[in-house]
């Protein structure tokens, strides 16, 4: 059944599993491009930090299995076999990169697939609530420093840091809680982007936009949370994230059936105007972006990755062969797309691993006329399409397992 709107409400005491989940989620967020992990001691042990993230996930699976002995549905087993078969096929054509793909793609995918299977429905909702709480806390902190520091200059920076992100960069620091790594000339604003403590705005915007659509789609409506996340997304000046919000809300508005009969009767007349306004805003944003270098870079990377996917079909060029992909691009300062990069590396196997659960979820939502869920999956595909988080984040695999796969197959859901 489709993910219902509810809030996890229990008087149970804060447990070891709760603490581990908070740690896991915090690491999922911060390993998605936090500046803290890109210089100094933490940069030197970053690989071990990512491995610790997976080990915490495995520990939660063990504790949940011991405490509740969950039963896994057939489709959960089917997906685990399906992923294994896909990776086995990948190994045939890219055996020299199999170890890298196994550690940094297959293992995270399977860990979160199993974790989604051992969590009950309420535990899954609470997991997302924890993610939202942490993201809202980060959003409030970053908005404070962005407005009073970056915009009004009332708060002064406390220093600067030099970090590695594709190349060596420098960012102004505010107590190492907020950094200023990027400026922007976007529509009518010229200034500093709200990047929180991340290396660049797209990484932060990826987390904010996924939090926003999860909150709007699956959790109890909370205007404060939605507003904070929305304002934070705007201050990142990320075209991808802003369009994601417009896309989600526009699709929800168009497809949602209102309880008011009068509104439903006039809705067909109003929808063309609402759709035209939404498309006009999106087009205006995109046209403004075409005057900047980032549009040309992203277009080049999109076309380049798709060409490599076709040329190397069905195997792909191999996970970890980033330099091989960059060599084929005109703009070589780092990849700026996600899904095309993913399928260029993994070929047909990667394409199937991503689109089979997404398509299954989409069909299920359409059949049940759960239009907000339809808006969710289409928006998620857009976000992953335009943001390179393939090997820098595991959040997309969590969403695939906790939402798309779990909705399709686990008995508790």
From TrEMBL:
Keyword terms of this UniProt record: Membrane, Transmembrane, Transmembrane helix
Keyword Disulfide bond: no
Membrane-crossing residue ranges in chain numbering: 20-39, 45-64, 76-93, 99-119, 131-155, 224-248, 269-287, 339-363, 375-399
Name used for this protein in its record: O-antigen polymerase
């Amino acid at each position: 059944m489709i993910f219902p709107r509810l809030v996890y409400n229990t008087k149970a005491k804060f447990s070891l599993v709760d603490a581990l989940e908070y740690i896991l989620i915090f690491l999922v967020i911060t390993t998605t491009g936090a500046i803290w992990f890109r210089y100094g001691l933490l940069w030197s042990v970053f690989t071990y930090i990512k491995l610790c993230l997976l080990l915490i996930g495995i520990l939660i699976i063990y504790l949940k299995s011991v405490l509740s002995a969950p039963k896994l549905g057939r489709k959960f087993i089917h997906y685990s076999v399906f992923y294994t078969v896909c990776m086995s096929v990948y190994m045939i054509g890219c055996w020299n990169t199999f170890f890298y793909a196994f550690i940094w793609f297959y293992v995270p995918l399977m860990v979160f697939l199993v974790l989604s299977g051992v969590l009950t429905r309420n535990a899954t909702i609470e997991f997302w609530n924890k993610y939202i709480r942490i993201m809202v806390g980060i959003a409030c902190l970053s908005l404070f420093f962005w407005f009073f520091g970056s915009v009004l200059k009332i708060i002064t920076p406390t220093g600067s840091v030099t970090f590695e992100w594709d190349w060596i960069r420098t960012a102004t620091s505010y107590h190492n809680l907020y950094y200023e790594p990027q400026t922007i000339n976007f529509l009518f604003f010229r200034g500093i982007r709200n990047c929180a403590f991340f290396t660049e705005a797209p990484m932060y915007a990826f987390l904010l936009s996924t939090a926003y659509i999860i909150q709007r789609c699956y959790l109890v409506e909370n205007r404060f949370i939605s507003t904070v996340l929305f304002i934070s997304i705007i201050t990142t000046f990320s075209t991808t994230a802003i369009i994601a919000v417009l896309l989600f809300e526009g699709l929800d508005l168009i497809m949602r059936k209102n309880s008011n009969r009068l509104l439903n009767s006039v809705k067909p007349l109003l929808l063309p105007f609402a759709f035209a306004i939404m498309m006009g805003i999106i087009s205006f944003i995109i046209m403004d972006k075409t005057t900047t270098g980032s549009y040309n870079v992203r277009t080049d990377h999109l076309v380049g990755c798709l060409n490599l996917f076709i040329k190397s079909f069905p195997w792909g060029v191999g996970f970890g062969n980033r330099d091989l992909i960059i060599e084929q691009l005109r703009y070589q300062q780092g990849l700026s797309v996600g899904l095309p990069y993913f399928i260029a590396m993994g070929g047909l196997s990667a394409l199937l691993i991503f689109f089979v659960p997404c398509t299954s979820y989409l069909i299920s939502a359409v059949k049940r006329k759960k239009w907000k869920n339809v808006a969710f999956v289409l928006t998620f595909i857009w976000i992953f399409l335009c943001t390179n988080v393939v090997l820098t984040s595991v959040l997309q695999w969590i969403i695939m397992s906790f939402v798309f796969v779990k909705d399709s197959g686990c008995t508790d859901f």
